Amino acid sequence: MKATAVAPSNIAFIKYWGKENSDFRLPLNSSFSMNLSETYTTTTVEFSPSYKNDDVVFVGGEFSVRETERVTDALGKMREKTRTHSYARVKTKNTFPKGTGIAASASGFAALTVAGFAALGFSLSEKDLTIFARLCSGSACRSIPDGFVLWEKGDSSETSYARSLYPHTYWDLSDVLVIVDAKMKKVPTTEGQMRVQTSPFWKQRMQKIPERMKKVQTAFEEKNFSLLGETIEEECLSMHEVMQTQVPPLFYWNDLTRKLMKLIQTWRSEGLPVYFTIDAGPNVHCIVEKKHVALLQEKLQTVSGIHAVIVNSAAPGAHVIPQHLW
Ligand code: PMV
């Protein structure tokens, strides 16, 4: 009744912003992401008939009431699905410091899903695991399959799931993640996404997504890095255009975010092939091929105010490991 899983966080190249159905977390559009090797969650879950309640421990910090509730809700859904009555102990830790604005809900709920069902000895297909994780936190479904992952929008809970399009070994891409703010206060994405349709630009963005998705897939087939980079930057800017024109507007960037975006353009014009993408926070994900990581790191060293730099490569999806957290 005890199991441990590791799950990577992921960075979306084609992003998910807005739901068609909030109850089932069905997205407005399909999305595509890369699993990240250095920012991951490890979670141990143990169910026992002797436990009187669910107990959730976050190693090295604390969960807010809301975060704890989301975990216990997920445990409740697991019990319902497996017809179990036992409560659980959950211990979870991240490789990245909490509060630095790296979305931990993707890696967190993917690890909880895989560890929880394994602890219950309940075997689910990868597809069904991604569906369960999606119900806990949308982007978590993309942290379960290997490498470069497509989350199909679908039109029902059964058809909205994630699958690997390319294994993590397919292309030597790196995400050099620049942490620019250690004390980020962010509007939770669940809340922000509810107001997507108040932006006058959301429909325009939706119309462009299929074309961008095709371009990203072509870039992968051909390993065409500039096509990939141009498309993901355009996609990132279009998501933030929607965020910034929602009512009320969501401004996730700070001065250093904007400075880095401009520097990346400059470095590119000087011959370093690097592109940015940014999630619901101020941190900048610099996408480069592995062979250019060292030069990019040198350039980043000249920029003041950076809190930390984490060099990620593409990673496998969530999986069970034999060592438990207690
Ligand atoms: O899964 P959520 O509700 O944390 O939403 C994540 C949304 C973005 O990170 C902004 C984009 C994405 O597709 O990951």
Q: What does this protein look like?
A:
This protein is an alpha+beta fold. It has helices at 65-82, 105-119, 126-136, 189-193, 202-222, 225-245, 255-269, 293-301; strands at 2-14, 19-21, 26-27, 31-48, 55-58, 87-94, 148-151, 162-166, 173-179, 275-277, 284-289, 308-313, 319-321. The radius of gyration is 19 Å and the shape is globular. (3R)-3-hydroxy-3-methyl-5-(phosphonooxy)pentanoic acid binds next to α4.
Mean of all residue-level pLDDT scores: 95
Largest sheet: 7 strands, mixed
Cα distance spanning the termini: 14 Å
Order of H and E elements: EEEEEHEHHEEEHHHHEEHEE
Given the helix and strand composition, which structural class is it?
A: alpha+beta
- Oligomeric state of the chains present here: single chain
SS element count, helices: 8
Count the beta strands. 13
Please tell me how large the radius of gyration is.
19 Å
Enumerate the distinct ligands: (3R)-3-hydroxy-3-methyl-5-(phosphonooxy)pentanoic acid
